[in-house]
Amino acid sequence: MKKIVLAGGCFWGVEAYFNNISGVMKTKVGYANGNTENPNYEGVCTHSTGYAEACYIEYNEENITLEKLLEAYWIIVDPTVKDRQGNDIGNQYRTGIYYIDEEDYKAILKSVEREQEKYDSNIVTEILALKNFYDAEEYHQRYLQKNPNGYCHIPRELLR
């Protein structure tokens, strides 16, 4: 399985969205690329830990390529907005692509270049190697499946 971590605002909707994509084998939500150990939701919400709410994705490259996965990602984010998606504001809601496999870096940059052609403003999505990822608390995992009417900045029709 290939792995990538994507941040795109509140992680509840990002996880629900990617769970419905063929070829995605496993997802979990958590906190990526921060500067403390063992973060929790309350700490991340203080905007002082440096973590992004993110979705860890394992996918079968025989069923979906990284390029197709990133095409799906760009549909649910506004990559030109810093530290915000929808009504969610703060550095934990930034957009980010955190790669685990160094070989993915070039494909990510090409995807960003293609996406940039759609915007007048610069894309501000972080493109970084994953330095750390901590699972979010259990109540956040598959949150929208457990709470179908829960908040989500992603349009419901995209969550199927």
Show the helix and strand layout:
Blueprint: E1 2-8, H1 11-19, E2 24-32, H2 41-44, E3 52-59, H3 66-76, E4 84-85, E5 88-89, E6 95-99, H4 105-116, E7 126-129, E8 133-135, H5 143-146
Parallel strand pairs: 6-7
Antiparallel strand pairs: 1-3, 1-6, 2-3, 2-8, 4-5
Helix pairs in contact: 3-4
In total, how many domains does the architecture comprise?
1
Identify the overall geometry. Answer: globular
CATH architecture: 2-Layer Sandwich
Report, as a whole number of angstroms, the end-to-end distance. Answer: 24 Å
The gyration radius over C-alpha positions equals: 14 Å
Strand arrangement, major sheet: 7-6-1-3-2-8
Uncertain regions spanning at least 5 consecutive residues: none
What composes the largest sheet?
6 strands, mixed
Number of strands: 8
Share in β-strands: 25-35%
Find the CATH topology: Peptide Methionine Sulfoxide Reductase, Chain A
Please provide a written account of the structure.
α3 packs across α4 (105-116). This protein is α+β, with helices and mostly antiparallel strands and 160 residues long. The chain has five helices and eight strands, in the order βαβαβαβββαββα. β6 (95-99), α4 (105-116) and β7 (126-129) form a beta-alpha-beta unit. It has helices at residues 11-19, 41-44, 66-76, 105-116, 143-146, and strands at residues 2-8, 24-32, 52-59, 84-85, 88-89, 95-99, 126-129, 133-135. The strands form two sheets. A six-stranded mixed beta sheet has the order 7-6-1-3-2-8, with helices on one face. Strands 4-5 form a two-stranded antiparallel ribbon. The two termini are 24 Å apart. It has one domain (2-158): Peptide Methionine Sulfoxide Reductase, Chain A, CATH 3.30.1060.10. One of its GO terms (cellular component) is cytoplasm. It comes from Clostridium pasteurianum BC1. It is an enzyme of class 1 (oxidoreductase). GO terms for molecular function: L-methionine:thioredoxin-disulfide S-oxidoreductase activity; peptide-methionine (S)-S-oxide reductase activity. Has an important function as a repair enzyme for proteins that have been inactivated by oxidation. Catalyzes the reversible oxidation-reduction of methionine sulfoxide in proteins to methionine.
